[in-house]
Amino acid sequence: MKAVVFGYHEIGYVCLEELLSSRISVSALFTHGDDPDETIWFRTPRVLAEQHGIPVHQPEGLRDPAWVEAIRAFAPDYLFSFYYRHMLPKEVLDIPRIAPLNLHGSLLPRFRGRCPVNWVLIEGEKQTGVTLHVMETKPDVGDIVAQEAVDIAQDDTARTLALKLAAVARTLMKNVMPALEAGTFERRPQEGASSYYGGRKPEDGLIDWTMSASRIYDLIRAVTHPYPGAYTFFGGRKLFIWNAVPLEETAEGPPGAVVSVSPLLVKAGRGLLHVTSLQQEGEDEMDAERFLSRHALTTNALGGRI
Prior knowledge:
This protein is about 25% helix and about 25% strand. It has helices at about 10-20, 45-50, 65-75, 90-95, 115-120, 160-180, 215-225, 290-295; strands spanning about 1-5, 25-30, 55, 80, 100-105, 110-115, 125-135, 145-150, 195, 230-235, 235-245, 260, 265, 270-280, 285. About 40% of the residues are buried.
């Protein structure tokens, strides 16, 4: 059997690695360039493909008839999409003899769409996972072929959770591979409550201090390194909060008020946020003790905009 792979990110790497250990021959990898504004902390399938002599293509889009014909010429039994960031048009989805399959980073039908690893943390979920499903023109709605769940720890960040998802993606591919090789995999329709989330921008990291401390913490861990970070404002500049701990304690003052500097505690809509690592825009990141030796944080509320 033959496959054409569309992939990127750590999940793209590990899933391609599993395919290369199977009886399914990979004819080509389609990927895209690294975003210069993104911290590239993960392995990319391009490196793996080049090591194995697999042709690598990086088109700007796949609606060009020349690319459609090039993919058709591979005569693939499968198309696999592993964290490829572009939608595949119907002309491409119709090409494989058996099926076009996508690996999505959530337990579908929940958290369809973009950035599921960030969104499940923001929403305070306790479990997520990966889903291999049949691709359709509408994103993330096709029949489920396989799923693997993973628990979300209280101290997980987007990076640690992404690595957990990559590990269970590898497990999923190992488990489903015999059925894929035989072309006898089962598929079932998605059932239950669905949800859809869009992409995120750096400005979506603005902290709303009227939210509970636990919800603010969830935002912080969802967008901390290697993502752009959660921030508030102090002294007319952005103040990034890279690490914090939510507390159920209460204190007087409006949301955003600094109620203690040793330790650094900020009042939320409910509870307190113990800030442990932060960074004023234009400066280095530092722990709270070092930051407070350089900056005088008063009880005035943090927040607002420039």
